[in-house]
Structure formats: C-alpha cells, structure tokens
Specification:
With 214 residues, this protein is of the alpha/beta class. 25% of the residues lie in helices and 24% in strands. The chain has one domain: Aldolase class I (TIM Barrel).
C-alpha cells in the first residue's frame, strides 16, 4: 500500500457527466495528461500535484462517506499506478468509474470499474491520439463519450458510432462543448437522425459555471 501517485485534488461533488450524472461522488483527479484538447477545462491538472500513497488516498476518500468514486484527470492511465488504485478502490467496496481519453490501453483496468472512454473528435485537435483497438475491449458496463465542438464533429461521431456498432457494445453519450454548441441544437440533430445515443450536458457547469466541479 506504499504505491504512490501524483494527485491534483480529491473532492466531493455531484457527478456532472456519464449515466451517473447527479450522483454524489468522490473525485480523485490524477496529475498529468499527454493530450492537449482545445476545449480542456482541467489544464491545471497537467503538472504539479501531491505525491500520495494508495493508503492515504483511501483514507481521504473514506472521510467523505460516499459510495461512488470517479478517478479522472488529466489522463489517469498515464500513471501506471492508476491500475493499482482502481483495484484498491474496488476492493474497498466502492462503485468506481474511470474517465479516460482512450489514448492509452484500457484492457488491464480492473473489470469491476466502469470505463468512460472519451473518443477525441477532429474539433478537439487530438483525433490522431484515439486508440481504436480499445473499442474491441468494451463491456456493457462501459460508456463511450463524444465531446462535440460543432456540426462537423457531430457528423464524424455519427459515422464512428455506426462504423464500430458502438451502441450495441455499451451506452454512447453525445455531449456539446459548453458554450460552443447549443444543447437544443444537438438534441435536434440526434432526434432528426434517430441516433441510439444519450445527450448529456455538463451538469456542474450549469450549477457552478466554469469554476471547478465543486
């Protein structure tokens, strides 16, 4: 339990995204990310952070007395010890989700973890970082998310959705970049094209604006 990770913050808030939206959740934000998406709102997590042992992380998480935990970043899988942290959280009885860009392999993640994979669109500026072989590892407990900058991103995501039969593998989320695409417009596109996806907005942005999730 002396395995350590770089941690930007651990905090208690409402989950703003995924099918767990609205649930009180403990967030563990790991430091570091190999991507630089144009719309990133967590660039403060690229560097710095505090070195913490898994035992210390578990102690901090337990202090919130909340059963749902989300490991996020940055890109959490950029730290190899993230895998051990995820397993330790599952062993402690938490319902655990992982928010990952999908730019790194997901196959070694503990099967008890719900993996939320953010497929990068052309508008993100990081589309070439997508690791497409991750899609073959999807389970029904996972989710795939597309963050859409404009209608071109929507059309691209629609093609990927169909080409890879994603809706048959797990839930698929379409999310507008806050302030760039109106949610009502995205809703119209989804309804027009009868897509088997869930539209989501970032709940925390509507509750607390562009401040950090809490």
């Amino acid at each position: 339990m002396q395995t350590t990770l770089r941690i930007t913050e651990i905090f208690h808030s409402l989950q703003g995204e995924s099918s767990r939206v609205g649930l009180p959740t403990v967030f563990i934000r790991l430091t570091g990310c190999p991507l630089r998406c144009g719309y990133c709102d967590t660039s403060y997590a690229f560097t710095g952070g505090e070195s913490m042992s898994i035992a210390s992380i578990l102690e901090r998480v337990a202090s919130f007395n909340t059963p749902t935990v989300c490991v996020t970043g940055g890109e959490p899988l950029a730290q190899k010890n993230c895998l051990a942290l995820l397993t330790a959280l599952c062993d402690a009885g938490y319902s655990v989700s992982l928010e990952t860009s999908g730019a790194l392999p997901i196959d070694a993640v503990d099967p008890r973890v719900a993996r939320i994979i953010d497929i990068k669109t052309p508008g993100s500026g990081e589309v070439e970082k997508n690791r497409w072989d991750n899609l073959s590892a999807l389970r029904a407990s996972d989710e795939v998310k597309f963050v859409l900058c404009d209608e071109a991103d929507y059309q691209w995501a629609k093609d990927i959705l169909r080409e890879h039969h994603l809706a048959q593998a797990c839930p698929v989320l379409f999310s507008p970049v806050h302030g760039s695409v109106e949610p009502a417009q995205l809703a119209e596109w989804v309804l027009r094209d009868r897509l088997p996806v869930r539209l989501q907005v970032q709940l925390h942005k509507y509750l607390w604006g562009n401040e950090r999730a809490r």
